[in-house]
Write a structure and sequence with these properties.
Elements: H1 7-28, H2 64-75, H3 79-85, H4 90-101, E1 122-123, E2 128-131, H5 140-147, H6 151-171, H7 179-191, E3 201-205, E4 208-211, H8 214-217, H9 221-227, H10 231-247
Antiparallel strand pairs: 1-2, 2-3, 3-4
Length: about 250
């Protein structure tokens, strides 16, 4: 277990934030809510006319970066997000991360700009130690950001960015497949990560640590990364991820 970061989970967060930005943008274009409502009869009332459900015209794939940057800068000033927005082909990066996470692989190598500060730490002495719980705090802000967003709204707006995300996903060696199945697969892998409580024993030294429990070490890379965020953060994320999967 080297010191890779849970980039797959951050990729899920970015998809969430992108969707939330488009939902926010759609709401900002709606008429003021303080206008006097028109009286209508039951037969005249529309079944569903919410402005947020209107399709959003997306730019072509090669012009998505300015579109996303303009929306996301208005939505959040998180430094992690700002660093990522400074890179190119944002949709392509998301598609690649989702593709890798859908098989349980870690996209950390391709999204290094998103890694949180700090390093993995273990306490104790000798070849067998336990994960230092102080390191879990590195992920508190990220988990708070993700879980504060309504999962049902994420599911509704996912269809908005899906066309460009799907294009990028198919261009990443997935011709004839769609990103929907990949997202669900990535979610299922994370949700199926076993619940583990502290202390979590590890063996090794430096940046080459492994779970002492062979069953845990045999988990997929993204599942091992989720465990390294700490029991409390993992529990909160899994509750939110289940809600997102159900909504999808």
């Amino acid at each position: 277990m080297d010191d890779k970061k849970p980039i797959a989970i951050i990729a899920v967060a970015l998809v969430t934030i992108v969707g939330g930005a488009i939902w926010w943008y759609s709401r900002s274009m709606a008429p003021p809510s303080n206008a006097t409502p028109k009286v209508v009869t039951a037969t005249e009332a529309p079944i569903d006319s919410r402005p947020a459900d209107k399709p959003v015209d997306l730019p072509p794939r090669d012009r998505m970066d300015p579109f996303l940057r303009s929306l996301l800068r208005e939505l959040s000033n998180r430094p992690e997000l700002a660093n990522w927005l400074a890179t190119d082909d944002l949709v392509g990066q998301l598609a690649m991360a989702i593709d890798q996470a859908s098989s349980g692989a870690s996209p950390a190598r391709d999204l290094k700009v998103l890694k949180p500060s700090g390093t993995f730490g273990a306490r104790g002495s000798g070849p067998t130690r336990v994960i230092d719980p102080a390191g879990y705090k590195r992920y508190d802000a990220l988990v708070q950001t993700i879980t504060s967003i309504d999962a049902s709204k994420v599911a509704k707006i996912f269809k908005t960015i899906r066309p460009r995300l799907n294009e990028a996903y198919q261009q990443h060696g997935n011709a004839g497949r769609n990103v929907d199945a990949a997202v669900v697969a990535a979610l299922d892998i994370l949700i199926e990560t076993p619940d583990v409580k502290d202390p979590i024993a590890v063996t090794g030294a430096g940046t080459l640590w492994e779970f002492k429990d062979e069953d845990l070490e045999g988990l997929l890379p993204t599942q091992r990364q989720l465990l390294r965020m700490g029991p409390a953060n993992a529990d909160r994320l899994k509750v939110w991820l289940r809600a997102l999967r159900d909504a999808l």
